[in-house]
UniProtKB/TrEMBL annotation:
Residues 264-413 form the Glycosyl transferase family domain. PANTHER family: GLYCOSYLTRANSFERASE, GLYCOSYLTRANSFERASE EPSF-RELATED. InterPro entries: Glyco_trans_1. This is Glycosyl transferase family 1 domain-containing protein. It comes from the Bacteria. It holds the Pfam family Glycos_transf_1. Coiled coil: none annotated.
Length: 434
């Protein structure tokens, strides 16, 4: 039996939620009974999960478990950022601590740092009833680069609303407190898993761990598609600034019907929530600097601040400078629709600033679609020739791939070979070693 604790989980469409759902589903599919503790809200909105329910007891506590897949159950806890002035998490914090502490299982997995799921369990590790305890890290950019001034740019909306408890306030800030706490408690985990050896805090935290291993993100072997093939060049040699295209910019109110209409023709794709650090502005500039005239499709489930409206304004400026191009900004596309867009895309573009191991890159590879990406996380290990450092370089590589079918097809085949190394069927074996 496995107890998994993660702040973001199905049905959320975030990288963390997708990665944790994939791993837990793989463990459940392998025959393990997996109970996943997570929040019942995200960004102040309730999350709806359905399935058969049964009661689970831990110590004196009893919770209702929702079966979302065979052997895979969700245990919801109402924990949320508190009033900005009191600077504390609120809700069932004590209940969460008591449940984790007293739950008898073979393996307890804590997912990610900079979350309530890990913050509130660190001091309890020596007393947990679990036979083995591991920490699964998802990237530690804010731990290594965050300061009270820069944290607001580094963390997600939920962590931005997390203010300091009195204990943390006395220590000056959250990040110094967390660094100190991790140094003192990581030894109590049987193993700490990083996404890869160049993960942000690998060298910094490794001396404080009893055991360190790598546990990358992955995909399911059955979902890997054949590599895409390009039959003819898709770039235009004529770029007319006066040209116009019908409906060049819009946030689609009926994304499902728009998705269906897009699937019948070539397009470029970016899948990321509308956050500044996801770099959609970089992608948009690279697209306009390229010679291609096929549409660019953005897909995001969540928005941070004015990111989406800023992108629309940038598109208007680029239309004026370079001539109009066809760009779609899709919101709230269901998971099935997102996967269909991946499956039928011609080229995937990504320009994140901070991610450690972008799930969307693996998903593009899963569908046999070549990608171009900024030098973030471990993407260079997947295919160094597809790294770009400026919008102009992205534009040039778009033109190279779409203008040379032989080069495109060889790249797709190379990525198809690489993705075989990142299947959950292989990845979960690393957990079993613990």
């Amino acid at each position: 039996m496995i107890l998994y604790a993660t702040e973001q989980y199905y049905p959320l469409q975030t990288g963390l939620a997708s990665a944790d759902y994939g791993l837990t589903y793989a463990l459940a599919k392998a025959g393990h009974k997996v109970y996943c503790i997570t929040s019942n809200t995200y960004a102040n909105k309730p999350l709806n999960r359905s399935g058969k329910t049964h009661k689970v007891k831990s110590g004196s506590l009893e919770r209702m478990a929702i079966e979302i897949a065979p052997n895979l159950f969700v245990l919801e806890f109402a924990i949320y950022p508190g009033n900005p002035h009191c600077q504390m998490w609120q809700g069932e914090v004590q209940a969460y601590q008591d449940f984790v502490k007293n739950f008898a299982c073979d393996l307890s997995i804590t997912s990610a740092i900079l979350t309530w799921t890990s913050d509130y369990v660190l001091d309890l590790l020596p007393t947990l009833q679990a036979k083995r305890k591991v920490l699964r890290l998802h990237g530690e950019w804010a731990l290594m680069h965050g300061t009270p001034k820069s944290l607001k740019f580094a963390l997600k909306d939920w962590i931005k609303r997390l203010c300091y408890s009195p204990e943390r306030y006395k220590m000056g800030s959250y990040v110094p407190w967390l660094r100190s706490k991790l140094k003192a408690t990581l030894k109590d985990y049987d193993c700490v898993f990083f996404l890869h050896k160049r993960s942000h805090a690998h060298d910094y935290l490794k001396p404080y761990c009893k055991c360190v291993k790598m546990l990358p993100n992955g995909v399911f072997e059955k979902d890997i598609c054949p590599p895409k093939t390009l039959e003819a060049a898709l770039k235009s040699t004529i770029h007319n600034p006066q040209s116009t295209i019908h409906n060049p910019q819009s946030t689609i109110h009926n994304p499902q019907s728009t998705t269906a209409s897009l699937l019948n023709s070539p397009y470029l794709l970016n899948v990321s929530n509308y956050y500044k650090e996801k770099g959609q502005d970089f992608v948009l500039q690279g697209y306009y600097l390229s010679q291609t005239q096929i549409p660019l499709v953005f897909v995001g489930a969540l928005e941070q601040g004015t990111t989406l409206s800023d992108l629309k304004q940038l598109k208007a400026q680029l239309d004026h400078t370079h001539g109009s191009k066809e760009v779609y900004f899709l919101c709230q596309v269901d998971r099935g629709g997102v996967l269909e867009l991946f499956k039928n895309a011609t080229l995937f573009l990504h320009a994140s600033h901070e991610e450690c191991f972008p799930m969307v890159i693996l998903e593009s590879m899963q569908f046999g679609v070549p990608f171009l990406c900024t030098d973030v996380g471990n993407v260079r290990d997947l295919c160094a020739q597809l790294i770009v450092r400026t919008p102009q370089e992205m534009a040039e590589k778009i033109d190279t791939l779409l203008g040379d079918p032989d080069h495109y097809n060889a790249t797709a085949k190379e990525l198809h070979q690489t993705i075989q190394e990142y299947t959950y069927e292989r990845i979960i074996e690393r957990l079993f070693e613990v």
